[in-house]
Amino acid sequence: MQIFKNFISYTPTEINPAFAGYEVFFIKDENGIDWYESRKLFKDETLKIMVRPDGLIDAEDYDVYKMWPENHSVVELNSTESCLGKIYDFETNTVINKPLELTVSSTIKSLKIKAMDIITPLKFAEEIGIITKSEQEYLNKMKEYVVLLSRVQQQPGYPDNVEYPTLPTKK
C-alpha cells in the first residue's frame, strides 16, 4: 500500500518535453516525490483516499488519475467501504469514524467538488459562446444541484436524517 504525505506545489528544475507549450501544475510530497510519478505506483483495484492535514478524508476514488491532492496526503487502502468523512490516523495507519455532523459536511464537500468538475467545462463553453442547448440545460441543473447541496445543513433532521439531492444526468 502506498502513502504519500503532504503534497505541495512546486516548480521542477527540468520539465518533461511532453509538457512543452502547456500550462502544467506540479505537486510533490514531503519526500520530494512528484505526483505524476507517484501515481504509477498505485494499484488499479485499490481505493485511494485524499486526507487533509487535519486527518479528515474528504475524497476517495479507485482511479488515482482523477485526484489532485494539493495540500492533501494520498493513502491506498484494501477497502471497498467508503471512507468519506472519516479520519485517517497516520500513526496507526487506520481509518477511524468521525462524528456524524462532520461526516455529512465532508460528504457535501466531496459531492460539490465532483459537481464543480462537471460545471467548469460547461461554464467555459457558456462563456465563449459554444455551449449547446442540452449543455445549457445540464449546466442549469448542475447549478441547482450545488445550491441544494448547500442547503442540506438547513434540513430539519440534520445531521441525523438528511436527504442529499440527486446528481442530474446528462441527456
Describe the overall structure.
By secondary structure, the protein is of the alpha+beta class. The chain is built from three helices and eight strands. It has a four-stranded antiparallel beta sheet with strand order 1-6-4-5. Helix 2 (100-127) runs antiparallel to helix 3.
**Helical segment count:** 3
Give the CA-based shape. flat
Helix-strand topology string? EEEHEEEEEHH
Mean pLDDT: 91
Q: Which spans have pLDDT < 50 for at least 5 consecutive residues?
A: none
List keywords for this structure.
alpha+beta, 29% helix, 171 residues, 3 helices
Summarize the structure.
The chain contains three helices and eight strands, in the order βββαβββββαα. The protein has helices at 35-38, 100-127, 133-150; strands at residues 3-4, 8-10, 26-28, 47-51, 57-61, 73-77, 87-89, 94-96.
Topology, pairings included?
Blueprint: E1 3-4, E2 8-10, E3 26-28, H1 35-38, E4 47-51, E5 57-61, E6 73-77, E7 87-89, E8 94-96, H2 100-127, H3 133-150
Antiparallel strand pairs: 1-6, 2-3, 4-5, 4-6, 7-8
Helix pairs in contact: 2-3
